[in-house]
Design goal:
The structure is a homodimer. Chain A is mostly helical. Chain A folds into two domains: 1-74, Multidrug-efflux Transporter Regulator, Chain: A, Domain 2 (Orthogonal Bundle); 79-143. Chain A is built from six helices and three strands. Chain A is elongated and about 75 Å long. Chain A starts with a strand and ends in a 16-residue tail after the last helix. Chain A binds chain B through residues 47, 50-51, 54, 57-58, 75-76, 79-80, 82-83, 86-87, 89-90, 93-94, 96-97, 99-101, 103-104, 106-108, 110-111, 114-115, 117-118, 121-123, 143, and chain B through 47, 50-51, 54, 57-58, 75-76, 79-80, 82-83, 86-87, 89-90, 93-94, 96-97, 99-101, 103-104, 106-108, 110-111, 114-115, 117-118, 121-123, 143. Chain B binds a DNA duplex through residues 4-6, 15-18, 20-21, 24-25, 34-39, 61-63.
DNA sequence: TTAGAACCTAAAGTTAGCTTTATGTCAAGA
DNA sequence: TCTTGACATAAAGCTAACTTTAGGTTCTAA
């Protein structure tokens, strides 16, 4: 299947200007063009966009994603580098999830804090509540 | 306890220039200064830094965090707004965790993919592997 | 009292990741 | 064939979140 830039934009929700920017950055090596110079996206480029999305979510920069995509072009000699990269990204994502989970606990504490304050109509009373009045599971996340 | 900007930077790992930038942005309303004009961070500012870190992790912009900190200054009338903000951030963080977990599955697929390719010394063989040769728990995350 | 480390400000600079603008070409239907 | 909407490029512009620079002031320990 082949797609115009507008179709790709509609299917993925990625802005046309962004797709052109990615192309300019070399994220679609050997993407085809029509005789008149118009970009022709194939399923290969669609797959690339999914990889870009995945790696972007892990916090990788466009520059580094581009590097990875070029390793893909090199074929088998870069297999180990590419494998190592995914293991690194996996570790990174685990760290990010852990950080978010910690943050989630803090947010739960804050939700309890403000719920209580709104109920009492007064923040100071919550501020001065003794520790044992804070729900046990939230105590450690007081901030 | 009181701290100089350098001490705060050491304790938190936040660059001095960043602390000054936050101050310039108004994130530390009524922070004290020494007679000579030198910033004096108290435990209140340290707590603010923890809140900033929490909200930044949820993806909030500095501008919006500043807004929240100003609501804090307003006292009880803004309690509901502040509570609602934390519930929003909680939802946001849940979404982020879900996205990261999905990404983690994809990364696990890729790790398996490249492990196999490295073992075989050949990517094409993995590419053409029938679906049932992909570990069951990874099949849905093929990309 | 003096050296130098640590602090201060204002303003300019940096980087990533796009988006916008200006101008022009291509392609498909009436 | 003509129109018009979708495409093209190059270059400039934008925003967030800092960081750097330049030049000066304050504080502390010898």
């Amino acid at each position: 299947m082949y797609y115009s830039i507008g179709e790709v934009s509609n299917k993925t929700g990625i802005a046309i200007s962004t797709l052109r920017y990615y192309d300019r950055e070399g994220m679609f090596p050997n993407m085809e063009r029509s005789h008149g110079g118009i970009r022709v996206f194939s399923d290969k480029e669609m797959a690339t966009l999914r990889v870009i999305d995945c790696l972007k979510t892990t916090g990788m920069s466009i520059k580094d994603i581009k590097q990875f995509l070029h390793w893909c072009q090199e074929g088998d000699p870069s297999l180990v580098k590419r494998r190592d990269l995914f293991y690194e990204r996996l570790e990174e994502v685990k760290k990010q999830i852990a950080a978010l989970q910690k943050t989630m606990h803090t947010l739960n504490y804050k939700c309890w804090y403000y719920d209580t304050a709104v109920t009492l109509g007064n923040e100071d009373m919550v501020k001065n509540l003794p520790l044992e009045k804070i729900p046990e599971e939230l105590r450690d996340y007081k901030i």
